Amino acid sequence: HAIFWSITAAIAIRVAPEGKKALALSVLATGTSLAMVLGVPLGRLVGQWFGWRATFGGIGGIAFIVFILQAKLLPTLPSMFEGSFRKIPELLKNPLLVCLYLLILLVFTAHYTAYSYIEPFMRQVGSVSENSATFVLLLFGVAGIVGSVIFSRWGDRFNTRLMLISTILMLFSMLVLLFVVTSIWALSLIALLWGAALMLLIISMQAKVIMVDVNAQDMLMSMFSGIINLGIGTGALFGGYAVTHLSLSSVGYVGAAIASVALLLMLYM
Fold it and tell me: Each residue of 174-188: pLDDT tens digit?
């Protein structure tokens, strides 16, 4: 999984037609959003009909077809990176890259502090029904597609502004989470804002990171992917501490506090 994500964005940019690099990243993000929305429901459906083994077998079969298509359709793309791991200290001397990586860590920590516990938060704090909770989570995934479409239109020209607006929207969404959880309509609106902002922020940061050094894109994206995974784990950990030592209703505020640090870092940058 980590290896896949470390090279996929770089490949998408390299095979994209001239002037379509933002669109290529957007299409990649749209696929990710669709997978988040459709993956679990489809897997559950197949499992209910044919048993859970059929779900895994189906994934294996589809992956094999994709493997054949990639072998046939992708051009030969030798690595642009000719260095070694000694390149890492050199890359990390770039203050912009270090700040971007720190920003990525903060954003994902903030997001997963709240989002890791969003379903029990909705069910227990807001008394949201199981079907309504599923609907809100689907909306969150669909909103990611909206974010990727916005980036495809304006990502090349307004990358920094989009990052700033997305961070503010994420901060706002987590801040008002406790107030809107009792209204399914307000909660749905926040899910749309939050989901679109997160996806927009991910692609915008990815586009910035990947252009720091065009000769080391694979390594840049490897570290990008690793930091995202670190942020996911750290966020779940912080959210767990918030649930244990404060209350389940506090996860939005704790996530917002971390997001505010991310916003301050972005303004500093």
Answer: 999 889 888 889 989
